[in-house]
Design goal:
Elements (H helix, E strand, L loop, with lengths): L4 H36 L1 E3 L1 E8 L2 E4 L7 E2 L3 E3 L6 E4 L4 E7 L6 E7 L4 E10 L8 E16 L7 E7 L2 E5 L3 E7 L3 E8 L2 E5 L2 E5 L3 E6 L8 E2 L2 E2 L15 E6 L7 E5 L6 E23 L5 E13 L13 E9 L4 E9 L23 E2 L6 E4 L3 H6 L5 E28 L1
């Protein structure tokens, strides 16, 4: 009878080797799994929104209807949608899970729609992962502030319809989204902008534009122009609306766009007998509370006028500009600036529009027939003199008013500085 000892030995060795291998696998994998958990596990951040002014709605995941933000709403999670009405303002705060370390903030201005995405931080200090914040921005204007006194890196990614903006350095950044483009500006810090498989890195004082369906348009500096087609390279419509008014039975003026080698111009002319007004208007609807400066520039040339200066009320200049805006209290306001060449010999006519509300500035006398390059004072500071800060630039009108007038203008820019 054959002995069964060899079979038993083989089985014993198999069990022993298998146990040893299992032990080795567990000895290695358990520490690795624990290490992986310690290094990669994340928890949700503390996110809240506070109302600054106006009306702001939010829809939290699972909610059947939007709720209006009253004072402060805490506990916002991924998937929360925020929408602000025109003229409104709200502040979203991102705080680490320790509930004491502020990671940054999102200042939302009027007419803005955003959705909160991933907002997570490492659970344990051993992790080298950053604090992550992802925001979907569909439209409007917002300022993102990334905190500088955080021991761990904070990374913010904003996804817009036109591209992705990544902020991974402390600083202050503005992002504005319209149907046509996304504009990114760096007040302080470094931003990387991605679109159409290309990217642009922006440093302090730089900005870029992502047109729909195109890559970032390189690095831009200086102020941004809030006016579309202010150089009149294209026809007036649809960016500008033409309007006319006159005394009964009198003639209308003419509005002529004239392309040229040096500049494209708009030409106003009216051989009237009594009062008339001829002009163009553009709706802007841009929130300017986040800008530091706002200046108007244009080139003007006056050929004819029959009313001395700007008339008895200071309201009949051969070229005038009106900016309509709303202040932070929601009041509609306007500012008017006139240009003329025909002086009042008696010096008795008003130097400003006396029927216009504050703030007022003196009309500018120019030389007849020559081009005059106008630059306004800082309009934000000027508008603040009414006692209430400006909030929204609603529209700009450029017009001529009087009896007989002829004038040209071009290179209209409303320059906002971050």
């Amino acid at each position: 009878m054959q002995s069964s000892h060899p079979k038993v030995e083989r089985t014993a060795w198999a069990v022993l080797i298998t146990s040893f291998i299992t032990f080795c696998v567990l000895a290695i994998s358990i520490p690795l799994a624990v290490r992986w958990y310690l290094l990669t596990n994340e928890v949700a951040q503390e996110v809240s929104i506070s109302l600054v002014s106006g009306t702001v709605f939010l829809v939290q995941p699972g909610a059947a209807r939007p709720e209006a933000v009253v004072e402060t709403v805490s506990g916002l999670g991924a998937g929360t949608r925020i929408e602000s009405e025109s003229g409104a303002q709200a502040a979203v705060s991102f705080v680490a899970p320790d509930k004491t370390t502020v990671l940054g903030g999102l200042q939302i201005y009027g007419g803005t729609r955003v959705a909160l995405g991933t907002m997570r931080s490492p659970r344990f200090n051993w992790s080298e992962l950053p604090h992550r914040i992802v925001i979907e921005m569909q439209s409007g204007r917002a300022r993102v502030n990334v905190a500088s006194d955080v021991p761990r890196q904070v990374t913010v990614a904003l996804n817009t319809p036109h591209g992705v903006v990544v902020l991974d350095r402390p600083g202050s950044y503005s992002v504005e989204v319209t149907d046509k483009a996304t504009e990114v500006a760096v007040r302080e810090g470094i931003a990387t902008v991605y679109a159409q498989e290309e990217n642009v890195a922006l440093a302090t004082g730089e900005r870029t534009l992502i047109p729909a369906g195109k890559p970032p348009q390189g690095i831009l500096t200086g102020e941004r122009n809030l006016i579309i087609n202010g150089d009149f390279a294209a026809s007036l419509s649809p960016d500008w609306t033409v309007y006319q008014d006159r005394s009964p039975g009198d003639v209308l003026g003419e509005i002529i766009r004239e392309p040229g080698e040096d500049r494209n111009v708009v030409h106003f002319v009216r051989p009237g007998t009594n009062w008339g007004r001829t002009g163009i208007r553009q709706v802007i609807n841009r929130d300017v509370r986040d800008y530091k400066t706002l200046r108007l520039q244009l080139a003007a040339r006056l050929i004819r006028q029959d009313v001395l200066a700007c008339g008895s009320q200071g309201s009949e200049c051969p070229l005038m500009i009106k900016i309509e805006y709303a202040d932070v209290a929601g009041n509609d306001r306007e500012w008017v600036q006139g240009f003329y060449y025909l002086a009042d010999p008696a010096n008795k006519l008003p130097a400003v529009c006396v029927t216009c509300p504050a703030p007022t500035t003196e009309h500018v006398r120019v030389q007849r027939g020559g081009w005059y390059l106008y630059e306004s004072p800082d309009l934000i500071e000027l508008f603040k003199k009414t006692g209430v800060d400006p909030a929204i630039i609603e529209a700009i009108s450029i017009y001529a008013e009087g009896h007989i007038f002829e004038s040209y203008f071009s290179e209209v820019e409303l320059l906002a500085g971050d």
